[in-house]
Amino acid sequence: MSAARPTSVPLLRLTPLALARPGRARRLVERNLVVYRRGWTYVVSGFFEPFLYLLSIGVGLGHLVGSQRVGGHPVGYAAFVAPGLLASSAMNGGILDTTYGLFFKLKYAHTYEAVLSTPLTSADVAVGEVASAFLRGSVYSAAFLAVMAGLGLVGSPWALCCLPIAALVGLAFASLGLAVTAHLRSWQDVDMVALAVLPMFLFSATFYPLSIYPGAVGWLVRVTPLYQGVVLLRAFDLGAVTPGLWWHAAYLVVLAGVSLSVAAGRLRRLLVP
Amino acid sequence: MVRARRLRKQFGDFVAVGGIDLEIRRGEVFGFLGPNGAGKTSTMRMIACMSPATSGELEVRGRDPATDGPAIRAGIGLVPQEDALDAELSVLDNLLVYGRYFDLPRRVIRERAGQLLEFAQLADRAGAKVDALSGGMRRRLTIARALVAAPELVILDEPTTGLDPQARHLVWERLYRLKREGVTLILTTHYMDEAEQLCDRLVVMDRGRIVAEGPPRALVAEHVAREVLEVRVLPADEAAVVAALDRHGAGCDRLADRLCAYGDDGDALLAAVLATGVHPEGVLVRRASLEDVFLRLTGRRLVD
Q1: Which residues face B30 on adjacent strands?
Q2: A225-238 helix and A187-203 helix, angle to the nearest 10 degrees
């Protein structure tokens, strides 16, 4: 027998993810898959939103808009918008479950009360939920990419890289969503998240190039997480790949890592009082 | 199975558990008795490795919860106060998914889930939504879920609170069966009859401390006498009655609406009261219970 060791607490604050084990976190993914299987209409509906945007704005509105220049080459408007929508689709897939869905499980359904009475830890919960949202986001991205290819909107063999990149976008937003949601108190707070996501979707150079903005606004857009995804996906989709893109990828990797760590720490304080 | 020394739990300035010692043996049914806020649930959660101790020593299943939480929980089944069933899953899926959390093979869980639904008398509701179950059914499902991993220790936090008498007896019967199978049970309750029926040993908790410990009958024998006389008299007559009972050597508690006196022969106590010439408004002679023990120890009723 040994005494409870308060000294272990600061260590865990630094590395809250140290308590996660992939084998255990996987069980929570399995749980979510059972729920998805029962509610597949809800899952499928998440795919249609960006698809409808692509048809109405990219293809429909695109007839009124001239071609854009990407990497010095002219591209049709639909082909210009499609990777932006792919990035938004990945974002939505990642963030929907870790905001609305997760807040409900945390505050009302008390789903994790039972989970934490098993060998799973709060860090397993963080990893498992992010992994579930990541999977869901990746499925959306793959489906959307297939639609893009079907409509002839893929401009380069580099586009194959769009799938892992979209998955990274989904992962970053899933982690960010969880980190934010774990700090929310009420549904009003959750609505604030939606209020942040919508302008990000509309203004992160999704529908038009960054050059439209005056300097200061342009810099504001440059630091948003979705912008990184849009730039990466547009470049790879249209074959305008440059070494500078590594910075955008690094941004998303760091965002995912830091967010997941913050989320795990917060969930621990919340769920294991 | 469980050993605690000076176990303490504090939330900010609030002391939920104020340094308790415990020794719970393999195979016994051990009860925590006390009013709301006594520290029972906090103690349960520490034993279940769902809440770290603030200080003191704790050992569960021979390991230290501070370092071996997942390994300890692998052998524990928990029935929390709020059922905490997964409302997004069906009755059967609640068992299947929960079993997976323990890393059990699907085949094993399926087999056990079938038996457990029988055990909980829910076999015909396997596909039902959890929301559609009655309170008693939810409780039984929660108990069944706690048993999926065949735990050697089952912790039940107020297993029958809010159940009607019929449902309560069904739960008790299921718990007896577990006991016969050699499972160690730890339960909290604020029902005296439940503690007397089920527990081999128990502790009475009040304000974060243990105020008494022992087998139910021994506690009754130690802290109150065999029988209780309850008398209701006019306020003006109270002093005379208390004096008469004192002369008779009987311990006496004054409650808001009545007096309780303890003795081996309740009828003799009543005779002593009547000999004073006072006419009580009501009298009752009954067997002493844990409720009386609690009243003696804390001066308060358990359930108000």
Answers
A1: B186, B201
A2: 40
Contacts with A115 from chain B: Cβ below 8 Å: 101
**pLDDT tens digits, one per residue of A12-42:** 555 677 778 888 999 999 999 999 887 777 7
In chain B, positions 118-157, which contact chain A (CB-CB < 8 Å)? 145, 149
Distance between CA A159 and CA B241 in Å, rounded?
Answer: 95
Say if CB B120 and CB B174 are below 8 A apart.
Answer: yes
pLDDT in tens, B205-244: 989 999 999 999 898 888 888 888 898 988 888 888 888 8
CA B120 and chain centroid, separation? 20
Neighbours of B297 (CB within 10 A): 15
Mean pLDDT of A186-214: 87
Reported ipTM: the value is 0.84
Q: Is the pLDDT of residue A1 over 50?
A: no
Q: CA angle at residue B158 from B37 to B230, to 5 degrees?
A: 75
- Sheet of B209-214, strand order: B76-79, B153-157, B184-189, B29-33, B201-206, B209-214
Give the gap in angstroms from C-alpha A123 to the nearest C-alpha of chain B.
12
Measured in angstroms, the CA of B146 and the nearest CA of chain A are apart by 9
Mean pLDDT, all residues of chain B = 89
Q: How confident is the model over A82-107, as pLDDT tens digits?
A: 999 999 999 988 888 888 889 999 98
Beta strands in chain B (DSSP E): 2-11, 14-24, 29-33, 55-60, 76-79, 153-157, 184-189, 201-206, 209-214, 227-232, 251-254, 259-263, 282-287
Contact A136, A33 (CB under 8 A): no
pLDDT of residue B249: 74
Domains of chain B: 2-214 (3.40.50.300), 225-287 (3.30.70.120)
Residue B229, min C-alpha distance to chain A (Å): 45
Give the pLDDT band (50/70/90) at residue A4: very low
User: Domain coordinates of chain A in residue numbers?
Assistant: 21-271
- Give CA–CA dist B285/B263, Å, rounded: 10
Please tell me which residue of chain A has the smallest CA distance to B60.
Answer: A1
Which residue is listed with tokens 């370092």? Answer: B67
**By the CB < 8 Å criterion, does B87 face chain A?**
yes
Q: Is A30:B100 a contact under the CB 8 Å cutoff?
A: yes
pLDDT in tens, A113-137: 999 999 999 999 999 999 999 998 8
Rounded to whole angstroms, the Cα distance separating B288 from B230 reads 11
